[in-house]
Request: fold
Amino acid sequence: MMAASQPKVRIRAFGLPDQERLVQLWRDCDLIRPWNNPEDDIRQCLENPSSELLVAAAKNTLCGSAMIGCDGHRGWVYYLAVDRQYRHQGIGRALMEHAENWMRVRKVPKIQAMIRHDNLAVRGFYGRLNYRDGDVQLVQKWLNEETS
Ligand SMILES: CC(C)(COP(=O)(O)OP(=O)(O)OC[C@H]1O[C@@H](n2cnc3c(N)ncnc32)[C@H](O)[C@@H]1OP(=O)(O)O)[C@@H](O)C(=O)NCCC(=O)NCCS
Reply:
């Protein structure tokens, strides 16, 4: 729960002027990998009618984000991030509540997130929000490379 003395946070849709700050936030939160182009991920999200990029702003400072979408079957969350200086104030929870409401409105029955195996901290966060481990193994293939 956000206490009254803590900064008032507004969850809103991403706008292009947010881009530089947002990518910096993702870098600071260690969410960017060499094989992911964040600007391209933002562009794809904005172009896709089944996805949305949410940001959290406190006193005009962008301090959080969540990229959400539905693949036609399940809801997904990517790039969930809260600036270190703003953590443990309920902003991550508020972003996920927005994400869950977005799914409910679209009648998406389940919401999922991929967590890197070494990201133990975020497991604790999701556990507090009543998310449970799924009994699945992720398999994947790059389609933009020649494979044998
Ligand atoms: C995960 C993250 C978004 C949480 O943001 P946050 O704003 O600090 O989270 P909140 O303050 O809303 O916390 C919600 C609840 O989770 C708990 N929580 C938060 N971080 C936690 C952690 N590392 N371990 C255990 N519980 C945690 C809080 O205590 C709170 O519980 P309560 O409401 O029952 O008291 C933030 O730590 C972050 O950006 N991490 C780095 C990026 C990342 O790993 N993203 C996920 C990629 S899959």
User: Anything to note?
Assistant: The two ends are 51 Å apart (CA to CA). The pocket of coenzyme A is lined by residues 29, 31, 80-82, 87-93, 113, 115, 119, 121-122, 124-125, 128 (CB under 6 Å).
